[in-house]
Amino acid sequence: AMRLDLPAGVAARRIGRAAVIGAGTMGAGIAACFANAGLPVVMVDVSAESLARGRDTIEKTWAAAVQRGKLTAAEMERRRALLTTATDLAAVAGAELVVEAAVEDMAVKRDVFAALDTIAPDAILATNTSYLDIDAIAAATRRPGRVLGLHFFSPATVMRLVEVVRAAETDPEVLATGVAIARTLGKVPVVVGVCHGFVGNRMLRVRTTETERLLLAGALPYEIDAALTEFGFPMGPCAVGDLAGLDIAWRMRKAQGARAEIADRLCEAGRFGQKTGRGYFRYEPGSRTPIR
Ligand code: NAI
Fold first, then answer.
1. Of the residues 20, 25, 132, 201, which should be mutated to test ligand 1's pocket, given the most ligand atoms within 8 Å of the CB?
2. Per-residue pLDDT tens digits for 147-169
3. How does DSSP classify residue 269?
4. What is the CATH number of the domain that holds 248?
5. How many CB atoms sit inside 10 A of residue 53's CB?
6. Which atom belonging to ligand 1 lies closest to the Cα atom of 21?
7. What is the pLDDT of residues 103-151, one digit of tens each?
C-alpha cells in the first residue's frame, strides 16, 4: 500500500560520503549531483568502459559550465577531486549512503544489495529503480529497515524532483535521511510508497497516452503543446519528447512488447527528436526551437 507520510520529529543521519553503483546515464548524473553539492562520492561499475564514459560525460558538463562562466576553474577542480571511480564494489566501504543505479534487472539489483549488505554494513542503501519492487530488493539484505528508494529523473543534474520511496520496512530515520540528502543535493523530495512507477512516471504516462490519442484524433503537435504551455507547463509533451529523445521510450516499449502508434512510426522513420533534427517537430541543426 502507498504510505506517503513523512515521520515528524525524526532526525536524519549525517551523510559525509556517498557511493553510486552504475556509471550509466543515471549513475553518472547522480554521482555528479553529490560532487556538485560538495560531497565525496565514489562511482562503481562492473564495466571499466562505462566508468570512463560516465566520468568523461560528467567532466565535459563541468568544463562546459566553466566555458559559460557558470563555474570557476577552481570549483571544477574541487569537484573532480571529490569524484573517484572503481570497478570493485569494495570501494563503497566508508560511504554512509549508497545509491544503486545499475541496470533495471531484479537479479542484478538483488546481487548488488546482497553484496553491499556485507561490504557496507552500516550504510543506508538506496535504489534508483523506476519500476522494480523495492521490498523484493530490500529482502536481499539482512537490514531491510535501512533500504529505501531514491528515484531521480533524467538528466539527474538538472531535474529537481527526487521521489523518496518508503518500502514496507524502511526505518523512519532512513526515510528522513533520504529526504534530507535530496535537499542537500538541491532537489525537491517527494515521499512516495512502493507502487508500479511511483508518482512522476505514472503522471507522465497519462500525458503520453493522451498525446497519442489526440494526435490519432487529428490534433497537431503544436496545438497540444500550446494548450499545455497556456496552463503554465514550461514545455508541451511533444517538445519534451523531442528534447529527451523519442528513441529512449521506443526502445523500452519494444523490450516490453508495447506500441505507441505515432511515436513508434516517428522512430521507425529515424525521427528521434532534436538529436536527429526531426521528431514531432523539425529543427535547424543545433537549434532547439521547432520550425513551424
Ligand atoms: P544504463 O544502462 O545507462 O547504465 C547502467 C550501468 O550499470 C551500466 O554502466 C552497466 O555497466 C552498469 N552495471 C550493470 N551491472 C552492474 C553491477 N552488477 N554493478 C555495477 N554496475 C553495473 O542505465 P540507466 O538508464 O542509467 O538506468 C540505471 C537505473 O536507473 C535503472 O534501474 C533505471 O530503471 C533507473 N532509472 C533510469 C532513468 C532514465 O531516464 N534512464 C530515470 C530514472 C531511473
1. 25
2. 999 999 988 999 999 999 999 99
3. T
4. 1.10.1040.10
5. 15
6. 20
7. 999 999 999 999 999 999 999 999 999 999 999 999 999 999 999 999 9
Q: Is the dihedral angle over the CA atoms 131, 136, 142, 143 positive or is it negative?
A: positive
Q: Which of 261, 149, 245 is nearest to 200 (CA)?
A: 149
Q: What is the pTM of this model?
A: 0.90
Relative to the CA of 23, which ligand 1 atom is closest? 9
Q: Is the CB of 129 under 6 A from ligand 1?
A: yes
**Which residues, listed in sequence order, are joined to residue 163 by a DSSP beta bridge?**
151, 190
Domain boundary among 141, 160, 193: 193
Say which DSSP state 159 is in: -
Instruction: Say if ligand 1 is within 6 A of residue 126 CB.
Output: no
The reply to whether 108 and 46 lie within a common domain is yes
Ligand 1 center–CA 26 separation, angstroms: 6
- Verify whether ligand 1 is closer than 6 Å to residue 177 (CB atom): no
Residues 34 and 20: their CA atoms lie apart, in Å, by 9
Pull the grid cell for residue 80. Answer: 573532480
> What residue type is assigned to position 69 of the chain?
G
Does the CB atom of residue 276 touch ligand 1 within 6 A? Answer: no
> Mind telling me the catalytic residues?
151
Ligand 1 pocket check: which of 26, 152, 162 to mutate, most ligand atoms within 8 Å of Cβ? 26
Is residue 100 within 8 A of residue 112, CB to CB? The reply is yes
137 within some domain? yes
Establish if 7 belongs to a structural domain.
Answer: no
- H/E element, 2: none
26 touches ligand 1 (CB under 6 Å):
yes
- The number of distinct structural domains making up the chain is 2
Give the closest residue (by CA) to ligand 1 atom 8. Answer: 24
Taking residue 257's Cβ as centre, other Cβ atoms within 10 Å add up to 6
Residues 124, 227 share a domain: no
Structural domain range at position 124? 18-193
